[in-house]
Amino acid sequence: MTIKSIEKAILYHQNLYDKGKPKISDKQFDVLVANLQRRSPDSPVLDQLGKPLRTEKIQHHTSMLSLQKFYVVANVETWGKKTGETLFAIQPKYDGVALSLRYEKGKLVHAATRGDGEEGDDVTRRALLCPDIPKRIKERRSVEIRGELIMQSTVFEDMFEGEFANARNAVAGNLMRRSGRTDVIKACSFFAYDLLIKKMFDFDTRMKALGDLKFMPTHTAFVVSTAVGEKLNAFSKSFREFDYAMDGLVIKVCSYKIQEEVGYTSHHSRWACALKFRGDTARTTILDVTWQVSRNGTLTPVAELDPVDLDGVTISRATLHHLGRFRMFAPRKGDVVTLARRGGVIPHIEAIETGKGKKIKVPKVCPSCEGSLRVEKDFLKCCEPECDSALIRKLRHWANTTGMDCWGPEVIQALYDAGDLTHPDGFYELGHADIERLDGFGMDSSTTLIEEMEKTRSMPLDTLITALGIPLIGKTIAKRIAKAIPDIESFGFVDMDVPGVGQSRINALRDWIIDHGDLLERLLEVVDVIPIVRPDIEGPLAGKNFVFTGRLSDMERSEAQHLVCKYGGDVAGGVTKATNYLVVGDLAKDSQLTKRNKAEKYGVTIISETEFASMLAEAMTENE
Question: Is residue 99 a contact partner of residue 113, using CB atoms and an 8 Å limit?
């Protein structure tokens, strides 16, 4: 392609993308941009692009965890009873971009997106374009404001409808783009839904404090436990009256003391949950069911539907999740299905009206490799370790996880079909000739792809573990495992207790190594693995695992956990055989007694806050 034709193609596809009607994938678009950057770095087209920002990462002082989700009010009521709280806060779950604003001595030092919950993207400069986000506040203490950046529905309809698919796309796209439109962010609102400070207090007081600091607090209703169900039902019926896109309601425990007692999992807070709206429904017919093979060999039934509009989106496919659900519905061709977009996003089959059409059967062999199948409880699995679809999905997972963003599904499929790429280590054996002989790929494309692949020859240990696609082991668990082993050579020695990692995941890791040890060895020959650097401290906290329970009187639990990690220790949410110390705070309620009992069972040392403070002081002294 000539430079002029590349520029023309970029502008054409960028225009389609901004209209919400893209014809090529983001990765294909990135290849075009990379080619232009190489051949004509001063091209004026590059200045016009709304290319995603290469932002700095901001580590969250306190994790921005997900919410446990429910779809039925009765389930929320059951959750509420388990917390033991008598007063709850109900807030809208806005469909926008969650932000964390950090203020030090009254000045905004950074604004960050949620990201993966542990760290997010620095969007400070763009966030300040929003009139609801102040540069300074009248509070000298360090505080963190959490809230949602959103756009009013009426504002979107008046100013931007037709230019973007919906309000959320407009906000998210322009917040994270170098030359995104400033008028979009200036038209946004920021609703604050929580305040984090060293000496925390109950939720109703925190919401009042947000108003005192001149933030716009999220609309909040405080209700007693006996009225939660009634209030949720009322909100669920009237949520469309709000001038903002919402996909549910958030319910929170008001008492900070109870918030600390019920605690957290690695994924979500136990003191807050979400009631997701089912949204509009639509009816259509099943044309057939296809079976997709995951990277771990599990077959997922997907209903192919007569296309139907649902909440402004054309739906033509919906998952049936697994063999057990497929058998429960027993679908036939021509059956009428009721669809809803759960959470306003994922199309979900709510019900099937069985007709007299041809019964759709479970496959007898793998649709990808024609290998034999086996049934494991509700799941149908391919018995062939070299199944085509599974291998291709593993390759795509490796590329996505390691940051090979330009390696889209088309090029991976083409290289697999040509026999040049079958396993992740094969990426690092490819040359320009392998790529250039593919239809539609020339020297520019191969150069871009090879350069991006070369950047992944060095990667952190937790990235490697995640990229391997081991069942039950995602990003968070991979980080915990990486912290627990000193180097990659220790990876095979998995008969160990890893803080915060359950035995089922350890077993999954062990089984994977037994089955795929040769692949790991080949990868280590072509990839340099960077171990997670741990503090070189010889104090009493080094190598020790701590679990906290109850409320601490002299510091917040999050601060105590941070100091443990700072001085060489590890923190977990629950007591296991790997736990060294259980730190008990003020009062021992039922949840803490459970941890006590486990600690005694496993021979874990139980210490008071005073004893913990002494250990901390000793660690600080030795580190000076």
Answer: yes
Q: Count Cβ atoms within 10 A of the Cβ of residue 140 and give its class: 0-12 exposed, 13-18 middle, 19 or more buried.
A: exposed
Residue 539 lies in a domain: no
The whole-number pLDDT of residue 161 equals 64
Whether 413 and 528 map to the same domain: the answer is yes
Q: Are residues 567 and 597 in the same domain?
A: yes
Cα separations in angstroms, 407 against 71, 132, 403, 414: 37, 40, 9, 11
Whether residues 134 and 181 share a domain: the answer is yes
Q: Are residues 236 and 98 located together in one domain of the fold? A: yes
Q: Take residue 607 and report the two structure tokens written for it.
A: 């210490």
Q: Give me the percent of the chain exceeding a pLDDT of 70.
A: 83
Residue 294's identity, in one-letter code, is S
Q: What are the residues whose beta carbons fall under 8 Å from the beta carbon of 454, sequence distance 6 or more?
A: none
Asked if residue 474 and residue 407 are part of one domain, the reply reads yes
The parent domain of residue 180 ranges over 57-276
* Sheet strands side by side (includes 87-94): 66-70, 268-276, 246-253, 87-94, 221-224
| Mean pLDDT within 14-28 | 60
- Is there a single domain that holds both residue 262 and residue 319? no
Pairing of strands 336-342, 346-353: antiparallel
| CA distance linking residue 591 with residue 586, whole number of Å | 13
Could you give the number of structural domains in the chain? 5
DSSP state letter for 487 = S
Does pLDDT of 342 surpass 70? no
